[in-house]
Amino acid sequence: MKAIRVNQTGGPEVLSYEEIPTPSPAAGQALVKIEASGVNFIDIYFRTGLYKHEPPFTNGQEGAGVVEAVGEGVTDLQPGDRVAYTGVPGSYAEYAVVPAARLVKLPDSVSSKMGAAVMLQGMTVHYLTHSTFPLMPGHTCLVHAAAGGIGLILVQVAKMRGAQVIGTCSTAEKAEKVKAAGADHVILYTEQDFVAETKAITHGRGVDVAYDSVGKTTWEGSMNCLRPRGMLVLFGNASGPVPPIDPLMLSQKGSIFVTRPTLVHHIADRQELEDRARDVLGWVGQGRIQVHIGQEYPLAEAAQAQIDLAGRKTTGKLLLIP
Ligand code: NDP
């Protein structure tokens, strides 16, 4: 089968399109014929070595397709089932072996492309808005990179929860997409001072929560946008990692809270995975959220997809099609 291998960490040029043996499912696993693989920023962190995974490995953490075969002891899945998953390395490939306990069956109303598009980003948005800071009517949230894969879903779900949403993004074209997703206000943080704008929009009060996946270039401004006792949810490093934070700073900025969550700890339990996946796939299937697929690439062009994502050229979700 074809796969995108990382034989050493580095730039996009290390992504190697290779022929490797098709794996067989061991006990408790299923072999999935991948119909679409989601491209995520986390794939770039693993490729560069910011997040650790000893090479060689197949890149990619999210896929959807059809069960081809199951290993011993797998009773709740059978060949032909349509499934999706995230959090298991190796989805940039024609086939992947995945623990059955990590697979979720796709309802008829959700295509494989949609499944591959929402498992990681949709469930991330779910825990951010329902668990990390449960949004409610009356809350105001700041969403950075609001035209991105996570961003466009986060804006819609925050509105669904009844919150006021302030989105940031880099271009007027992206701002149109953020507005169309339902944001109440959009700030071009490449041209405007997002702290001053956020303070003006909230009449000096500040936001209840700032969802910040941009990191290095925004984290401090995000803190300055918070109301007293507000929460900064740092959940990514698109512009680079955030330096160590002095706890005293949290008191000086208004007894604020800072958290640095990650998806894996919010779907580790099978029941939690099923609950979040059911909600997210339900929103998609019922048309309660629109998932914007910005671009599809052939599997062999994974490097170009990552170059475009890191280069801030994309909106919404990117998919690789084997
Ligand atoms: P996006 O589609 O959001 O792409 C990243 C966006 O970040 C860009 O489009 C760009 O938007 C913005 N950005 C700002 N500064 C930079 C920069 N210097 N370089 C590159 N991009 C920049 O990606 P994803 O939706 O895949 O992921 C968004 C973030 O969420 C990532 O940081 C990712 O790691 C994180 N994440 C965290 C998870 C968790 O559980 N903790 C799970 C999933 C994702 P603009 O041009 O508008 O500024």
Overview of the molecule:
- This protein is α/β, with parallel strands linked by helices and 322 residues long.
- The protein has two domains: 2-120 and 267-321, Quinone Oxidoreductase, Chain A, domain 1 (Alpha-Beta Complex), CATH 3.90.180.10; 136-260, NAD(P)-binding Rossmann-like Domain (Rossmann fold, 3-Layer(aba) Sandwich), CATH 3.40.50.
- Helices cover 30% and strands 27% of the residues.
- The chain has nine helices and 16 strands.
- It has helices spanning 41-48, 112-132, 149-160, 172-180, 194-201, 219-224, 247-252, 270-285, 302-310, and strands spanning 2-6, 15-19, 29-39, 57-58, 62-70, 82-86, 95-99, 104-105, 140-143, 164-169, 185-188, 207-212, 226-234, 257-259, 293-298, 317-321.
- The strands form three sheets. Strands 3, 5, 6, 7, 8, 15 and 16 form a seven-stranded mixed beta sheet that branches. Strands 11-10-9-12-13-14 form a six-stranded parallel beta sheet, with helices on both faces.
- Helix 4 (172-180) links the parallel strand 10 and strand 11 (185-188).
- Helix 2 packs across helix 3 and helix 2 (112-132) crosses helix 8 (270-285).
- It is globular and about 60 Å long.
- The N and C termini lie close together (10 Å).
- The protein binds NADPH dihydro-nicotinamide-adenine-dinucleotide phosphate.
- NADPH dihydro-nicotinamide-adenine-dinucleotide phosphate binds next to helix 1, helix 2, helix 3 and helix 9.
